């Protein structure tokens, strides 16, 4: 519908025409247009998230699977399925996507609510009701005279002042 088309337009910064080369397990679609300028011929279209407004946080370059990474970055011309068949490894693990964006270590898996409330909520932040207030002096003077006349410091025995007689 309209929301899908609107979010798709927000995700894609350039209108492109090309041929679908393949898809991966994450739902990414890989396209190629050989008539385009060099290094502009291949691109990926990520699946459009639904039910969210901040779609900028929902797709990232780390979503490209290892099978398609070499093809996307012009390292070779083998598409993902062909590369996966040719270079299979018995210790292959499932790809983990964008660990820093979702922050699963901070979410409670049962409720999907933050485990720690007010993560990085310093005083004065717009969502923190506590005002910032005065933290301290704006600066600390290097020289704090006890009287109006400066006194000499005794560095020989590390006393506060030097008494010359």
UniProtKB/TrEMBL annotation:
Keywords: Electron transport, Membrane, Mitochondrion, Mitochondrion inner membrane, Respiratory chain, Transport. It is found in: Mitochondrion inner membrane. Its main location: mitochondrion. The keyword Iron does not apply. InterPro entries: NDUFA12. One of its GO terms (cellular component) is mitochondrial inner membrane. The keyword Nucleotide-binding does not apply. It is a peripheral membrane protein. It comes from the Eukaryota. GO terms for biological process: response to oxidative stress. Pfam families: NDUFA12 (PF05071). Accessory subunit of the mitochondrial membrane respiratory chain NADH dehydrogenase (Complex I), that is believed not to be involved in catalysis. Complex I functions in the transfer of electrons from NADH to the respiratory chain. The immediate electron acceptor for the enzyme is believed to be ubiquinone. Belongs to the complex I NDUFA12 subunit family. This is NADH dehydrogenase [ubiquinone] 1 alpha subcomplex subunit 12. It comes from Prymnesium polylepis. The lineage of its organism: Eukaryota, Haptista, Haptophyta, Prymnesiophyceae, Prymnesiales.
